[in-house]
Amino acid sequence: MVERDTGEAKPRRKHAKYLDTRSGRIRLALIGDNSAASIKAFVSANVKQGATLLTDGHKSFPGLKGYRHDPRVVGKMAGHIVLPWIHRAFSLMKRWSLRTYHGLRRKHVDTYLNEFVFRYNRRFYRHVSFETLLGLAADKEPASYWDLIKRDNPRKGAARSGATPLPTYRRT
């Protein structure tokens, strides 16, 4: 979902036949399926009423009430010509995920999407991103991988099961 700050579309140049659909902020989430109910839940949670949805013309979008719908059916034309900014966002996401994580793991997809959205939406304001991350990190306790996936660490299973912990030694 790409959202622009301005509500009005402006032609790129004089006598242009297409609108300037520059990318603004994006929202991404993993949804269960392509059903109208799943798409409606995502759109109503992330898009203001009255906004224009620039979509690929999927049959689940026209049932949304309270939104203007501008379907752009791709057909035989290349997707990057019809929907250039969403194509660019997903191209960047694929390239970022392959370079950074060497692919995405299914059980962590929401975490990957959240990180990409954070980076994408702040791509022009890097100092603000750093300050936000610094503020979040200073306010929280360190989290391990096992805390993130909400499971017990198998290496620390003996300490949790009531066994006596190993002694710690201090240098003097």
Keywords, separated by commas or semicolons:
two-stranded antiparallel ribbon; mainly alpha; 4 strands; 172 residues
Lay out the secondary structure.
Layout: E1 2-3, E2 25-26, H1 36-46, E3 52-55, E4 68-71, H2 79-82, H3 84-100, H4 109-121, H5 126-139, H6 145-148, H7 157-160
- Content-based structural category: mainly alpha
Strand content: 5-15%
Shape: elongated
* Rg on CA atoms, Å: 22 Å
**Tally of discrete structural domains:** 1
Q: How many distinct beta strands?
A: 4
Strand order of the largest sheet: 1-2
Q: What's the N-to-C terminus distance?
A: 58 Å
Q: What number is the mean pLDDT? A: 76
How many H/I helical runs?
Answer: 7
Describe the structure.
There is one protein chain. This protein is mainly alpha-helical and 172 residues long. The protein has one domain. The chain is built from seven helices and four strands. It has a two-stranded antiparallel ribbon with strand order 1-2. The protein has a two-stranded parallel sheet with strand order 3-4. The radius of gyration is 22 Å and the shape is elongated. The termini are far apart. Mean pLDDT is 76; it is low at 15-21 and 158-163.
